[in-house]
């Protein structure tokens, strides 16, 4: 390097991540092999955003400056041989957005050092980047509480002549997540056609918009999970989980050139059916305690709390507060057997109805407005990819009634719902056939039936 052997910028405590409003300080180190004349040694700290229309291009089409400060740490003179250190300090504005690097734009923060030499001598410069993090608190976003749901009905033609319909409904358990959390996606697909569908898929998508003269949209898949097919005429309830990887936050507050959005895409590959569920990615996760104070109690929740105290009959109050649950008929006495049923001479009760048996095998039924839930659970009972330590509410008997009402003002808490254990658990327990009104005596024989 000739006269200049070492020219470097170091930050105090080797810190590289800062927050808006903080001060950034460090040292410029200059090591010379021989004396060097200079007009000044300057240190500059700046932050800006640049966007372009070409991938990984630094010839910015548009730029946005956030701050640009320069100080002089040495005046005109001669630097002697050896090592020289010059301290510096800058204040980062509160309005500066979070650092970001994308295919068509970047938000860059850096500290640069300059040695201005006289006349036609060579100038020297160096720089070092640092990163700015403006935490996004999900609890401060409007309309962040509750679940995110959507539905779509798609008609399609197959075999040139026949027409079919697919009805898809999907929801996520929350509207905001932080890296490391799990997005629980619940999907109900009703194939009302005579053709089997393609595989189901759920994807976490990122869409970045770069505001140039003609906005550039960069859409990519972050994570994807795939399920099975839906047979002709069948209805399936599919549950999946997507772990959120480390990602840039949804909102770059203070930046007008780059916009980041996230959504969950649920789709069928054949026919082409798709719906999207917008979600937010932040740095501070949702706090259930803040939800209780921010969201007023719904009328359905108020009825569920007051009904057991006013009515001593627990079963009656439970059915009154959950009007959307499918009614279960009371057990009826078994009819007298036909002649071919003479082998039924035992004294045990008859077999339970088919719908009760399906409910016991398929898990706790969730009343989310989707018909035929128990059948869809039995169709693909092993289609769920549960992670260790994670669970859905239908696996916990005490949490079942909390998710039963389908009104959007009730199902606003993430899984598992706190306080659900105080609700009557009778709706999710299998019936007690030992106390039912089924006949306890052996049915009459064929001769006795004929005589009567």
UniProtKB/TrEMBL annotation:
A cellular component term, taken from the record's GO annotations: cytoplasm
Composition bias type Low complexity, residue spans: 293-323, 401-417
InterPro entries according to UniProt: Arrestin-like_C (IPR014752), Arrestin-like_N (IPR011021), Arrestin_C-like (IPR011022), Arrestin_domain-protein (IPR050357), Ig_E-set (IPR014756)
Residue spans of biased composition, Pro residues class: 324-338
Pfam families per the UniProt record, alphabetical: Arrestin_C, Arrestin_N
GO MF annotation list: ubiquitin protein ligase binding; ubiquitin-like ligase-substrate adaptor activity
SUPFAM superfamilies linked to this entry: E set domains
Protein's name according to its UniProt entry: Arrestin domain-containing protein 1
Phylogenetic classification of the source organism: Eukaryota, Metazoa, Chordata, Craniata, Vertebrata
